[in-house]
Amino acid sequence: MDQLVQLDEQREELEELGYNVYGISPAPPEQHQQAIDHFDLDIELLSDPMGQVGMDHDFIDDENMIYRGFMAVQPETNQYVKEIDYLAGDNIDQVKETLESMNP
After folding, report:
1. Mean pLDDT score, 53-78
2. How buried is residue 8: exposed, middle or buried, by Cβ count under 10 Å (0-12/13-18/19+)?
3. What is the pLDDT of residue 31?
4. Element (H, E) at 18
5. What angle do CA 79, 82, 87 make, to 5 degrees?
6. Average pLDDT over residues 12-32
7. Are 94 and 7 in contact (CB under 8 A)?
8. Distance from CA of residue 76 to its chain's centroid?
């Protein structure tokens, strides 16, 4: 959960760069709400109960192993970046640099 907390702490700055920030996992909405309440998160958490989004973007492999990471889409150019098996919260400065470099 510490990665999510770190991203939540940087959410406003990421949004100022022009990006919406979401957390996506196969956990049910009730479990997400518990995390939101417990950690006082402002980030929106989305449930992917069948893991389809995770599988489509390689965050879940054929053996149902789940990998942390991040994916960003620049809304004006549709350029995207994806990092799998990557701790975005621990590498937030690098994430912000990447997002800034994608902006037109």
Report:
1. 94
2. buried
3. 96
4. none
5. 140
6. 94
7. no
8. 19
Widest distance between CA atoms in the chain: 38
Q: Please name the fold of domain 2-102.
A: Glutaredoxin (3.40.30)
Predicted local distance difference test score (pLDDT) of residue 2: 87
Predicted structure pTM score = 0.85
Give the phi and the psi of residue 44 in degrees, each rounded to 5: -85, 130
Instruction: Tell me what the pLDDT averaged over the chain comes to.
Output: 94
Please count the helices (runs of H) and the strands (runs of E) in the chain: 5, 4
Chain position carrying tokens 């799998």: 84
Distance from the Cα of residue 1 to its chain's centroid: 12
The CA distance from 73 to 75, in Å, is 6
